[in-house]
Amino acid sequence: MTFGGDTPLMLDCGVALGPFSLAYQTYGELNAEKSNAILVCHALTGDQFMASRHPVTGKEGWWSQVVGPGLPLDTRRYFVICINVLGGCMGSTGPKSVNPASGEPWALDFPVITIADMVRAQKLLIDHLGIDKLFCVIGGSMGGMQVLEWAARYPEQVFAAVPIATAARHTAQNIAFHEVGRQAIMADLDWCGGRYIAEGKNPDRGLAVARMTAHITYLSEPALHRKFGRRLQDRNSLTFGFEADFQVESYLRHQGAAFVQRFDANSYLYITRAMDYFDLAQEHGGKLANAFRDTPVRFCVVSFTSDWLFPTSENRDIVHALNAVAADVSFVEIESDAGHDAFLLDEPEFRQTLAGFIAGCAEHRGLNG
Question: What are 188-200's pLDDT values in tens digits?
Answer without folding.
Answer: 999 999 999 999 9
